[in-house]
């Protein structure tokens, strides 16, 4: 299996682009409105490999919250072509739940078919609550590369993450948190987006889950949500039938170049979200 097929990807992207443009012009408003009672009122938008699956799993056990039946439906992007009936079916069967959500990390990626995701979500769902979970940028890149390398035999080696256009788009750009966060700030007010680091979530799970529940407006009790007070490990690298891939090592040159690319963006993100610049160390 090749690392992506540019010809087929280009066709899919074009079809998706045309559908999304029609949607943003209002041509699909009547279709979406017919499923209004089933649509989500919050979304976990990323980042990939930052414990988003664990968070969605925990929230899905809350008595007031329903999580989509498919993990990462990716509807407001590549899967928009599957249609509103398909998307609504992800939340069917529990209409009594007050809070409905999904988690699709591609929503904070640089893929062409997700470039208008923030606008598309806002157009159809309004200023719903968004949760942006982020991890130390370098650790996240390592884990994301393991994810792709475990799935695709022709994935370029780790030392090519900056040279391979596909790897840079798929793996590196998802760690440009300020760049991705800013896309949503164009359409959503500051208080509609909750940012949290993976370290905050895993080091203080009860406090963090309560903060998220208060943000959503749900009952902030964590009873029965955590496993002995900890988050469940639901999606480790190499799981889901992927090949077991060891943690890659940074060579000095690659690490230096990656830090030069990412650190300015990371510091802008930390400042914009009220966190100290030493939240992440770079040594």
SSE topology sketch:
Layout: H1 6-24, H2 29-33, E1 42-46, H3 52-60, E2 65-67, H4 84-89, E3 99-103, H5 117-125, E4 129-134, H6 137-151, H7 165-172, H8 177-185, E5 193-197, H9 198-203, H10 205-216, H11 252-272
Can you offer a commentary on this structure?
This protein has 283 residues and is of the alpha/beta class. The protein has one domain: 3-Layer(aba) Sandwich (Rossmann fold), CATH 3.40.50.300. It is 42% helix and 8% strand. The chain contains eleven helices and five strands; from the N terminus they run ααβαβαβαβαααβααα. It has a five-stranded parallel beta sheet with strand order 2-3-1-4-5, sandwiched between helices. β2 (65-67), α4 and β3 form a beta-alpha-beta unit. α8 (177-185) packs parallel to α11 (252-272). It is globular.
What's the total number of strands?
A: 5
Alpha-beta classification: alpha/beta
User: Largest sheet at a glance?
Assistant: 5 strands, parallel
Give the distance, in angstroms, between the N- and C-terminal Cα atoms.
36 Å
Strand content: 5-15%
Which consecutive residue ranges, at least 5 long each, have pLDDT under 50? none
Give me the strand/helix succession.
HHEHEHEHEHHHEHHH
What labels describe this entry?
single chain; 283 residues; alpha/beta; 11 helices
Brief characterization of the structure:
This protein is α/β, with parallel strands linked by helices and 283 residues long. It is 42% helix and 8% strand. It has one domain: 3-Layer(aba) Sandwich (Rossmann fold).
């Amino acid at each position: 299996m090749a690392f992506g097929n540019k010809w087929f990807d280009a066709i899919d992207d074009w079809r998706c682009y045309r559908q999304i443009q029609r949607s943003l012009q209002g041509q699909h408003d009547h279709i979406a409105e017919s499923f209004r009672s089933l649509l989500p009122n919050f979304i976990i938008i990323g980042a990939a490999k930052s414990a988003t699956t664990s968070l969605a799993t925990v929230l899905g056990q809350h008595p007031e919250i329903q999580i989509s039946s498919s993990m990462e439906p990716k509807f407001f992007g590549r899967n928009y072509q599957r249609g509103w009936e398909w998307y609504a079916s992800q939340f069917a069967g529990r209409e009594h739940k007050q809070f409905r959500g999904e988690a699709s990390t591609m929503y904070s990626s640089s893929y062409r078919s997700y470039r208008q995701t923030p606008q598309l979500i806002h157009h159809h769902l309004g200023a719903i609550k968004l949760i942006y979970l982020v991890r130390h940028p370098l650790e996240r890149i390592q884990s994301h590369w393991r994810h792709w390398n475990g799935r695709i035999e022709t994935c370029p080696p780790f030392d090519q993450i900056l040279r391979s256009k596909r790897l840079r788009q798929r793996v590196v750009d998802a760690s440009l948190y300020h760049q991705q966060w800013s896309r949503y700030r164009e359409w959503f007010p500051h208080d509609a987006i909750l940012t949290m680091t993976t370290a905050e979530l895993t080091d203080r799970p009860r406090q963090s889950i309560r903060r998220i529940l208060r943000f959503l407006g749900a009952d902030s009790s964590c009873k029965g949500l955590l496993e002995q007070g900890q988050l469940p490990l639901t999606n480790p690298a190499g799981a889901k039938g992927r090949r077991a891939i060891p943690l890659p090592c940074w060579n000095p040159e690659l690490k230096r170049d990656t830090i030069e690319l990412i650190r300015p963006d990371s510091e802008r993100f930390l400042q914009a979200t009220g966190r100290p610049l030493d939240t992440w160390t770079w040594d």
